[in-house]
């Protein structure tokens, strides 16, 4: 199994030589995950907060649906997205098939339930005494909302990181919706799938290591933010 | 016209089926210290939450300085503050925890100095504690920081729920001192719920007794919580932990109700009283306390693990040599016992 | 202070999102669906820049299974196809989904097996080979994944007048890619059908001394014809039919045909141009 050693070596070479194909895939991966994470956080955190905080009719059922969506297979999302975004599909006129924004929408569908469910859980785990404390310090409803969100920031961060992990590593959506088009929609994961299919295992491993390296850098940035947030 | 801080009428509150609190009428005056006494689950915390407008009562009305008030109303938001039992500190530094209320109020001036001053009141120094995280504090320190976060706001009313229950002796003393100082400095009205009867009897202008959600009595009293056993002669008795029997007349409500014995009615003698019709039990004097306004002495008598408080004039105490450590006979007229 | 910081970060993120999304514009492009073999061998990587240089059209392609490629065309998601399933293609055109089907090139399949060749098929015809394999119950490893290669194998069994031995013990279906299937064939000391491109890579990986050797090749039945099909603008009004025609003419033209013939994988020719 000389792939493993070769993979490491190759990963370093790809990065050091500034291999254009690899960097194009890195760029696509970062861009698309940036879109999908922004969308799923902007939509997911408030929804998760509401789901965890507010009591409304059918809350339990909504929660059940969200929790079920946690198990959405990426290939299935990819297939559904294709059906919708295909030129013959209901959203075909938007021209999103084989584009990064198209992949991002699919990844948002993947990440959204994670962000919602985990933020809702974080909200539910919130100490009931927080509300009492905030009111007794003079906070109004808006301030209670903001301060409560701030209070569970670590849980929200965890939700974001978990979602990011899935978004970064999914193949099904990128492959189906993006089409693995070189220089355009080829992400690191679809590139790995391609290289593996070609029997270029070492290159596949190298790309996998590159992905890990990116995840590592992102986590370093996040932990820097986290320190600022404490 | 000068209104009292609180005027409560026909207050009723519950969480679901069971009534938690039911108060027909209650007035709390400005600048007073009101003590709340009652066993666990008697509704003390609920009353404090309602008084601090954290929760809205299911029924009834709370007037704040003559005006009906509800949670978030402008008249009370910045004036009333509650220190909860086992207080909660936000996941921020000590500095930011204390800053929170000031920021909401847009307080100007030297904020750091204000925060430092509030910390000093509870015996902590800003230098050491400003940057401490919420998880870097002991139980007593947490309680004190939480109190400082309220004191810094100079509230008109400060409600405290068991402020000294779970803290070390030093913290307990500092918390008591700081609370009294608030009243002296800015005339803060204090409402304090505590198990520490002597302290409450000592500092309070009024003591309210709560039992099963009802205001039993204001003033000093001793509680005997059921269950009681009925005897063959038609009387009722409660077995005390040390083997003695407390004999009472038939309870009005039921065998598990509570008997209240006002402190003024408790007689203390060095020998068993021969007077007919008086119930008596033996105990040891544990503490003497000079009541502030009058020249009365509060005498605590320990009987097993329960405590009975009596209120006697200073002279009586002197002539009868009722000093701590002495064995005394506690007697009272069972007819005068109030049933709650 | 902390909250402001948080809000600021969020704001920057949103601005960046706006910036990214605005930077998306489309030059003149052509979208093609093709099969994995043209992509995996690197042929398209080699041809695409030449095409862009000649015509100014940016060629984008998605490499998928033949079935999916045809489906993408039906749904108007691509403008042109480069596929290798002659029967399906002819039907596709007949049904009105594609126009101007033109044969471009072919590569070929080979039957490989252990050098010991227990079934003694070396140099035999495909017909004879399959008969001998079945008769002797020699291990035969199949892709079993409905890929073009798998379909080719199934049609070979049919053309030989035999049933695909689906249920037989000697017939091993991997459900995996070609390279993985070769590895399994090697371990099972079995025969298998592979495209020449993958075999060349396998041979190279084994340092020029592979355990599995080419035993049957050159039979007409093993020819794998590639064609280009333009998507029918009647079916798909928005298709970039002009560019598709440019591409079809270009790849069938003299220059591109020569380049296809010159394309080498590990110093071996892979595709034989045969545009008429």
What is the helix content of chain A?
over 70%
Radius of gyration of chain C, taken over Cα atoms and rounded to an integer in Å = 23 Å
CATH top level of the largest domain in chain C? Answer: Alpha Beta
The CATH architecture category of chain A equals Orthogonal Bundle
* Shape-level CATH architecture of the largest domain in chain C: 3-Layer(aba) Sandwich
Mind describing the biggest β-sheet of chain C? 10 strands, mixed
Q: Give the overall silhouette of chain C.
A: globular
Q: How confident is the prediction overall: mean pLDDT of chain A?
A: 90
Number of domains of chain A: 1
N to C succession of SSEs of chain A: HHHHHHHHHHH
Please tell me about this protein's structure:
The complex is a heterotrimer of chains A (230), B (340) and C (276). With 230 residues, chain A is an all-alpha fold. Chain A has a single domain (2-126, 153-229), classed as MetI-like (MetI-like fold). Chain A has 11 helices and no strands. Chain A has helices spanning 3-16, 20-53, 59-69, 74-85, 100-124, 128-136, 141-151, 153-169, 172-178, 188-197, 201-229. The longest helix of chain A has 34 residues, at 20-53. Chain B is 24% helix and 34% strand. Chain B contains 9 helices and 21 strands. Chain B has helices at residues 44-51, 74-77, 94-104, 111-121, 126-129, 139-151, 169-186, 197-203, 314-320; strands at 6-14, 19-28, 33-37, 59-64, 67-68, 80-83, 157-161, 189-193, 206-211, 214-218, 221-225, 229-230, 236-239, 245-248, 258-262, 267-269, 279-290, 296-303, 306-313, 327-332, 338-339. Chain B has a 6-stranded mixed sheet, sandwiched between helices. Chain B has a 5-stranded antiparallel sheet with strand order 16-20-17-18-19. A 4-stranded antiparallel sheet of chain B has the order 2-1-4-5, covered by helices on one side. In chain C, 44% of the residues lie in helices and 24% in strands. In chain C, the strands form 2 sheets. In chain C, strands 1, 2, 3, 4, 5, 6, 7, 8, 9 and 12 form a 10-stranded mixed sheet that branches. Chain C has a two-stranded antiparallel ribbon with strand order 10-11. Chain A binds chain B through residues 127, 129-133, 135-141, 143, 147, 150-151, 153-154, 230, and chain B through 49, 52-54, 71-72, 77-78, 80-84, 86-88, 90-91, 100-101, 104-105, 133, 146, 149-150, 153.
């Amino acid at each position: 199994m000389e792939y493993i050693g070769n993979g490491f070596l190759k990963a370093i070479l790809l990065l050091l030589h500034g291999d254009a194909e690899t960097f194009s895939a890195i760029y696509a991966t970062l861009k698309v995950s940036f879109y999908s994470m922004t969308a799923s956080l902007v939509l997911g955190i408030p929804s998760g907060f509401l789901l965890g905080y507010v009591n409304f009719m059918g809350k339990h059922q909504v929660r059940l649906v969200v929790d079920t969506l946690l198990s959405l297979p990426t290939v299935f999302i990819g297939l559904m997205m294709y059906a919708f975004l295909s030129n013959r599909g209901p959203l075909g006129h938007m021209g999103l098939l084989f584009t990064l924004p198209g992949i991002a929408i699919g990844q948002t569908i993947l990440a959204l339930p994670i962000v919602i469910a985990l933020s809702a859980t974080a909200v539910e785990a919130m100490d009931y005494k927080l509300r009492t404390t905030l009111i007794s310090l003079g906070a109004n409803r808006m301030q209670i909302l903001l301060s409560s969100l701030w209070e569970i920031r670590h849980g929200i961060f965890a939700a974001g990181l978990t979602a990011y992990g899935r978004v970064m590593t999914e193949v099904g959506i990128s492959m189906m919706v993006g089409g693995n088009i070189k220089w355009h929609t080829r992400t690191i994961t679809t590139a790995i799938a391609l290289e593996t299919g070609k029997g270029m295992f070492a290159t596949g491993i190298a790309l996998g290591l590159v992905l890990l390296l990116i995840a590592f850098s992102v986590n370093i940035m996040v932990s820097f933010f986290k320190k600022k947030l404490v | 016209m000068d209104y009292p801080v609180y005027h409560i009428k026909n207050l009723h509150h519950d969480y679901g089926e069971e009534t938690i609190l039911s108060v027909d009428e209650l007035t709390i005056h400005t600048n007073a210290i009101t003590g709340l006494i009652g066993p666990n689950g008697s509704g003390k915390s609920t009353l404090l939450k309602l008084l601090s407008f954290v929760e809205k009562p299911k029924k009834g009305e709370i007037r704040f300085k003559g005006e009906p008030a509800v949670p978030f109303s402008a008249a009370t938001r910045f004036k009333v503050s509650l220190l909860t039992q086992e207080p909660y500190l936000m996941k921020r530094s000590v500095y930011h925890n204390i800053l929170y209320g000031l920021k909401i109020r847009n307080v100007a001036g030297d904020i750091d100095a204000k925060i430092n001053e509030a910390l000093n009141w509870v015996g902590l120094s800003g230098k050491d504690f400003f940057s401490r995280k919420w998880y870097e504090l002991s139980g007593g320190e947490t309680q004190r920081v939480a109190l400082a976060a309220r004191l810094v706001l100079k509230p008109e009313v400060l409600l405290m729920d068991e402020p000294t229950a779970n803290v070390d002796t030093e913290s307990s003393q500092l918390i008591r001192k700081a609370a009294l100082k608030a009243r002296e400095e800015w005339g803060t009205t204090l409402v304090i719920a505590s198990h520490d009867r002597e302290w409450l009897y000592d500092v309070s202008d009024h003591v309210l007794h709560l039992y099963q959600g009802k205001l039993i009595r204001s003033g000093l009293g001793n509680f005997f919580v059921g269950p009681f056993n009925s005897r063959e002669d038609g009387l009722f008795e409660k077995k005390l932990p040390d083997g003695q029997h407390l004999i009472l007349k038939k309870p009005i409500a039921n065998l598990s109700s509570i008997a209240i014995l006002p402190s003024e009615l408790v007689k203390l003698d060095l020998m068993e009283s021969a007077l007919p019709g008086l119930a008596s039990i033996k105990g040891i004097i544990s503490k003497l306390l000079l009541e502030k306004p009058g020249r009365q002495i509060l005498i605590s008598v320990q009987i097993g693990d329960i405590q009975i408080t009596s209120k006697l004039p200073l002279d009586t105490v002197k002539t009868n040599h009722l000093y701590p450590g002495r064995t005394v006979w506690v007697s009272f007229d069972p007819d005068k016992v109030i049933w709650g | 202070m902390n909250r402001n910081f948080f809000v600021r970060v969020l704001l920057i993120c949103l601005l960046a999102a706006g910036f990214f999304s605005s930077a998306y514009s489309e030059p003149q492009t052509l979208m093609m669906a093709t099969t994995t073999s043209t992509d995996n061998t690197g042929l398209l990587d080699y041809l695409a820049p030449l095409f862009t240089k000649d015509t100014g059209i940016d060629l984008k392609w998605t490499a998928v299974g033949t079935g999916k490629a045809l489906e993408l065309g039906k749904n108007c998601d691509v403008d042109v196809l480069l596929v290798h399933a002659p029967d399906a293609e002819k039907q596709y055109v007949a049904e009105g989904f594609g126009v101007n089907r033109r044969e471009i090139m072919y590569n070929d399949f080979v039957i490989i097996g252990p050098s010991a060749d227990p079934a003694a098929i070396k140099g035999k015809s495909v017909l004879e080979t399959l008969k001998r394999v079945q008769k002797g119950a020699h291990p035969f490893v199949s892709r079993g994944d409905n890929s073009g290669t798998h379909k080719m194998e199934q049609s070979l069994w049919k053309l030989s007048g035999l049933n695909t031995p689906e249920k037989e013990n000697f017939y091993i279906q991997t459900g995996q890619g070609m390279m993985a299937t070769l590895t399994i064939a090697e371990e099972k000391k079995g025969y298998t059908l592979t495209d020449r491109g993958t075999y060349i890579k396998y041979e190279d990986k084994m340092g020029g001394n592979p355990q599995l050797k080419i035993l049957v090749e050159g039979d007409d039945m093993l020819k794998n014809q590639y064609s280009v099909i333009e998507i029918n603008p009647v079916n798909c009004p928005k298709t970039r039919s002009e560019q598709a025609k440019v591409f079809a003419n270009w790849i069938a033209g003299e220059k591109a045909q020569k380049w296809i013939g010159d394309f080498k994988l590990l110093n071996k020719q892979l595709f034989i141009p045969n545009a008429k």
